Amino acid sequence: MADRTRNTTFMDKSKWSLIKKGWIFEAAVPYVGERPLDFFIPDKKDSFRGKVVRGTSVALSEDFTEGGNTVYQVVLDLKPRKVVVLSNDELNSSETQLDVMVAKFYSITDKDKSESWYELAVNGTHPFFVYLGQEVTGRECIIDLSTITTIHKNMLLEEKLDITSIMPVIESKIQYCFDLGLDATRLEGHSDEEGAS
Fold this sequence. Notes:
Blueprint: E1 23-30, E2 38-42, E3 50-54, H1 56-59, H2 62-65, E4 73-75, E5 78-85, H3 89-93, E6 99-107, H4 116-123, E7 129-132, H5 134-137, E8 141-144, E9 149-152, E10 156-162, H6 167-178, H7 184-187
Antiparallel strand pairs: 1-5, 1-10, 2-3, 2-4, 5-6, 6-8, 6-9, 7-8
């Protein structure tokens, strides 16, 4: 029988002190939705029942487009994936700060190995990908620092591995992204369509 306790550890705020910068965690990470969004419209009698509505009619309502006070429930996909925690340990352990800043991992496929960014990542010269060999996570992957996001701390499922030794590399690439210096010559033909998925 599967150990289901791994999914509940970080639902307890007193365990947030275990969240450490530079550690890899398994996390439930939502996919960022595209418009039109799918909205959950709760039933008036039971808020846990309702229907999913394609967003066009909801998104065009006056309240939504003018920033009204209504809170909408949006249906998003999520999947367990590896992330590295980027927030400092003071924020990570705080019981009042609910979110943690993370960068997502992407597995490298055979097709990815023929892309121009792959060699840059392996050599450590890609401006915002950090390469991790198979010996680190069990498969070749990259940490994509151009898609840093926040998730609620209770979305962390399980602590995996300490990679604080490469945090200086990660932090220098984050600084590059924050400087908005995405120099096309450094990317050598990398486009939005390319990349590990």
